[in-house]
Specification:
This protein has 7 helices and 10 strands. It has a single domain, classed as Rossmann fold (3-Layer(aba) Sandwich), CATH 3.40.50. Strands 3-4-2-5-6-7-8-10 form an 8-stranded mixed beta sheet. Strands 1-9 form a two-stranded antiparallel ribbon. It is α/β, with parallel strands linked by helices.
Length: 183
């Protein structure tokens, strides 16, 4: 019995992510969430398993800047995050058209529409404590930190931990266990 409780305690932090991986609940109409809703939920859950340096926030209650660069694939799914917080920081959503606008971003989602600009985008924020998440194949291998992928009609993600560490971000082991870690 003690081993069962021990297992439950170890898995508890994984539950938000495991729910997304194993299967997501259906809504009141019996419909599964859309891919954009799942990715939006991942973005929020990533914030629970990444530690930003204290210098990333000037004040304890400064907003957590979740920035979207390129065509917004989320719509209302991302707007709902403004009702949530990251620690003591309320989430603010910013839509960017140029990577030079990324000052103050804590998480930068790079839409697939920006694939050709990825090297320039990542260069603009290199060394800053910004979690970069992309929607293009191999985004993390190209210098980003996390990219979404599809496996058997399920949204998954890959992580490049070294890139995150170089930017001063710490990705918790819990997230690394659930994602595919790139070398």
């Amino acid at each position: 019995m003690n081993s069962l409780f021990s297992l439950i305690r170890r898995l508890a932090p994984l539950l938000p992510l495991l729910t997304l991986l194993v299967g997501t609940p259906r809504d009141a109409r019996g419909e599964a969430p859309s891919e954009s809703q799942v990715k939006g939920a991942y973005l929020y859950n990533f914030t629970k398993f990444v530690t930003w340096p204290d210098s990333a926030f000037a004040h304890e209650r400064d907003p957590f800047q979740l920035c979207l660069l390129g065509q917004d694939p989320f719509g209302a799914a991302i707007t709902a995050l403004t009702q949530k917080t990251v620690g003591s920081h309320p989430i603010a959503i910013r839509h960017l058209t140029d990577p030079r606008e990324s000052g103050g971003c804590h998480l930068l989602f790079v839409a697939g529409s920006e694939e050709e600009k990825i090297p320039r985008i990542l260069e603009a924020i290199r060394g800053k404590p910004v979690l970069t998440v992309g929607d293009t194949p191999e985004f993390a291998s190209r210098g980003g930190m996390i990219h979404f992928t599809r496996v058997n009609d399920t949204v998954r993600f890959a992580i490049h931990q070294e890139t995150a560490l170089n930017a001063g971000l710490r990705i918790h082991a819990t997230l690394l266990q659930v994602g595919h870690v790139l070398k």
